[in-house]
Specification:
- Residues 336-389 are annotated as: Disordered.
- The chain crosses the membrane at residues 12-31, 51-69, 76-95, 115-138, 150-169, 220-242, 254-274, 286-305.
- Residues 372-389 have a biased composition (Low complexity).
- The structure is a single chain.
- This protein has three domains: 1-141, no CATH class; 179-316, no CATH class; 320-387, no CATH class.
- The protein has 13 helices and eight strands.
- It has helices at 4-10, 12-34, 46-67, 73-100, 111-139, 146-163, 166-170, 174-179, 215-222, 224-238, 248-274, 284-304, 319-352, and strands spanning 38-39, 42-43, 192-193, 212-213, 359-360, 367-371, 376-380, 385-387.
- Strand 7 (376-380) and strand 8 form a beta hairpin.
Length: 389
């Protein structure tokens, strides 16, 4: 049973960051209730609340993965410590800016604000590199079942892709580029495409409902790691109820299809945002691509769930057939050994009678005859009697 003590032992620095973010989340909820200030059109405490939840989920997942490493555990520990330090420091800076009533991201209004934003950008880069190195380490590890191992590998790749969306937000918008002619703008970068940040958004997440929003693909991608791991664990749990899922190869195929589909969803939402299109108002082109992705996913799932009979006899035999063939082969080998042993005993018995100058005739029946130049000896090897004329 999972307990706080068990989770804390996974990786202490990461789990301490998780506990710290739980406190930040509680403070943010109180702030959302009591503080009615707006920062860039959003409730002041909404950003720290969202980041707290994201870091809690992400760091707890990384801590669990590090506890399962069988090699390079020390390197993994240091990578986890770097991720913990960077995420905790980012949360401290976000909270600091909220208390000051200033934006934490894209803020270039004062030297202090610009420094805070630059430091946050550097820390996120370090976090991405640490996650990338950890992903490389996981490529050479076997964790639990093969299907789970591949879910982790694919999930790490999707998470890195989602993080890589962040730099797209740091580029100045066309309006900000024009402001550079009159001096440095107060804001550099945006998560909204086609409009300025701070417009109408979805409840809780705040994603723009009137323009493209890169935060959608950023969020979906980062948490692809948790989605893939959860899928693998659910498939293992369902194997007891659905026999077809007992085969780990089937689960691996399902994981592969889901991973490709999830990657496609991440890319689709980023592409939609870059076209300045709200996530809640896709055009016909976006819907067409989404429909094609859904169709390919359905075909992939049908392929993943195929049975040997569906393949028309092609492909590798199922595990049960292999086990049965192995048993049959073992029985045949055992029978051959018994026959060989019996022949060896018979030949040995006949060879023992050569002291009288006899030569075995080689008949495998009960009576074997030995012939010599002066004496004829007939022995019955099974009865153990001999007759001499």
């Amino acid at each position: 049973m999972l307990t706080l003590a068990t989770s804390y032992s996974w990786h202490r620095p990461l789990m301490l960051t998780v506990y710290l973010c739980v406190l930040f989340l509680a403070a943010s909820v109180v702030g959302l209730t009591l503080d009615d200030r707006l920062i860039n059109g959003e409730a002041a405490w909404l950003k720290p609340a969202k980041f707290s939840v994201s870091i809690i989920i992400y760091n707890a997942t990384i801590a669990w993965l590090l506890s399962l490493l069988s090699r390079m555990r020390r390197t993994g520990w240091w990578l986890g410590t770097v991720i913990a330090a960077m995420s905790a420091a980012e949360m401290v800076l976000i909270i600091t800016q909220v208390l000051r009533g200033e934006m934490s991201h894209f803020n270039n209004a004062t030297p202090l604000d610009a420094a805070v934003y630059a430091v946050m950008g550097s820390m996120i880069t370090v976090l991405w590199v640490a996650t990338f190195v950890l992903g490389v380490i996981l490529l050479f590890q076997r964790i639990r079942e093969r299907s789970t191992t591949w879910a982790i590998r694919i999930g790490m790749a999707i998470a890195l892709l989602g993080m890589a969306v962040g730099p797209l937000m740091t580029a100045p918008t066309p309006a900000q580029v024009e402001e550079f002619a009159d001096g440095s703008p107060d804001v550099i970068g945006a998560h909204t495409v086609g409009l300025a940040d701070g417009g109408p958004g979805l409840p809780l997440v705040g994603w723009s409902t009137v323009g493209g929003d890169l935060r959608v693909g950023h969020f979906i991608g980062i948490h692809g790691l948790q989605a893939m791991i959860l899928l693998a664990l659910v498939l293992v749990a369902l194997a007891a109820r659905y026999p077809r899922l007992n085969d780990d190869a089937t689960r691996r195929r399902l994981v592969a299809v889901a991973g490709l589909s999830y990657t496609g969803l991440t890319v689709l939402t980023v592409w939609q945002a870059l076209r300045g299109q709200p996530v809640v108002a896709p055009d016909s082109l976006t819907l067409g691509v989404a429909g094609a992705l859904a169709l390919l996913t359905a075909l992939g799932l049908a392929w993943a769930l195929r049975t040997p009979s569906d393949r028309g006899g092609f492909g590798p035999p199922p595990a049960d057939d292999l086990a049965t063939r192995s048993e049959i082969g073992a029985e045949l080998a055992s029978g051959s050994k018994i026959i060989a042993d019996e022949r060896g005993e018979d030949q040995g018995a006949c060879a023992g009678s050569r002291s009288g100058g006899c030569i075995a005739s080689g008949k495998p029946e009960e009576d074997e005859e030995c012939v010599s130049s002066s004496t004829y000896t007939t022995s019955s090897t099974r009865a153990g009697t001999s007759t001499r004329p």
